[in-house]
Design goal:
With 239 residues, the chain is an alpha+beta fold. The chain has two domains: 6-27 and 139-235, Alpha-Beta Barrel (ADP-ribosylation fold), CATH 3.20.170; 39-115, no CATH class. Helix content is 39%, strand content 19%. It is built from eight helices and seven strands; from the N terminus they run E-E-H-H-H-H-E-E-H-H-E-H-E-H-E. The strands form two sheets. Strands 1, 2, 5, 6 and 7 form a five-stranded antiparallel sheet that branches. Strands 3-4 form a two-stranded antiparallel sheet. Helix 2 crosses helix 3 (56-64), helix 2 (39-52) runs antiparallel to helix 5 and helix 6 (124-136) crosses helix 8 (203-214). The radius of gyration is 21 Å and the shape is elongated.
């Protein structure tokens, strides 16, 4: 039986061709390392998001961009107002917060002493995917400890093309063959679900979308990714 062939999009500066590597024990990518570092803040953002019923954008801005609303919060406190409109943070959100609730969450954020920059917020997506996996699909491969691959070259090419269109700096990336030395475990998911969460989403909407991913459901325009655990070796594709 012919061995299954996988493909991967890599940054050639970060990954080496011809070296045998274990997918689980290899060093974590800078992206995943950053996600883990910021997890305490992401945990608080998610707690706030779920507890208040606000939009994701509101939850993020409430803790990472205090300059947008602190003056109005101070006015509300001075006027002894018990409710604080989310529209003071995100004009598209109509939820009302408890004024003291806002103060309490801001104090929690300050106590973490881990501060988000606008670019840091992008790392919350992997955190949110892992949160649902741990809660409901702990038997599935963690996206923190695997190799992201594609089951054919066409899918890898499609992903790379879209990636470069989104950010031209990824033009340095290339597609390589993944020679499997030992396959411990691999699972197929539709990575399009990662595009289905909008910044205006409510917590319940997020949970449903991520649940669709981990349960193996496909979107109407799937782009399948293979999460691989085992030993492998990257090789250049012969033209």
């Amino acid at each position: 039986m012919e061995e299954e062939q996988l493909y991967r999009v890599i940054n050639p500066i970060e990954e080496r061709i011809g070296e045998e590597v274990d997918a689980v024990s290899r060093p974590l990518s800078p992206r995943i390392n950053k996600t883990l570092k910021l997890s305490p803040v992401f945990n608080l953002i998610t707690e706030f998001w779920e507890a208040t019923g606000c939009q994701l954008l509101t939850a993020v801005k409430a803790l990472s961009e205090p300059e947008t609303y602190i003056p109005k919060l101070q006015e509300a406190l001075a006027g002894r107002e018990t409710l604080f409109p989310a529209s003071n943070i995100n004009e598209k959100d109509s939820i009302m917060f408890g004024t003291m609730e806002m103060v309490a969450y801001w104090q929690k954020y300050q106590s973490l002493q881990v501060y988000l920059s606008p670019f840091d917020v992008l790392h919350i997506w992997e955190y949110l995917w892992e949160l649902v996996r741990q809660a409901k699909y702990s038997n599935c491969i963690s996206r923190y400890n695997c190799l992201f691959t594609f089951e054919n070259k066409a899918n890898a090419e499609k992903y790379l093309k879209e990636r470069i269109k989104e950010n031209p700096s990824y033009a340095i990336d290339k597609i390589c063959r993944v020679d499997i030395k030992y396959a411990e475990k691999q699972e197929v998911y539709d990575m399009r679900w990662l595009d289905e969460i909008e910044i205006f989403a409510k917590y319940k909407e997020y949970v449903q979308v991520v649940d669709n991913y981990w349960s193996g459901k496909m979107t109407n325009r799937p782009l399948k990714e293979v999460l691989f655990q085992g030993t492998y070796c990257l090789q250049d594709i012969k033209i």
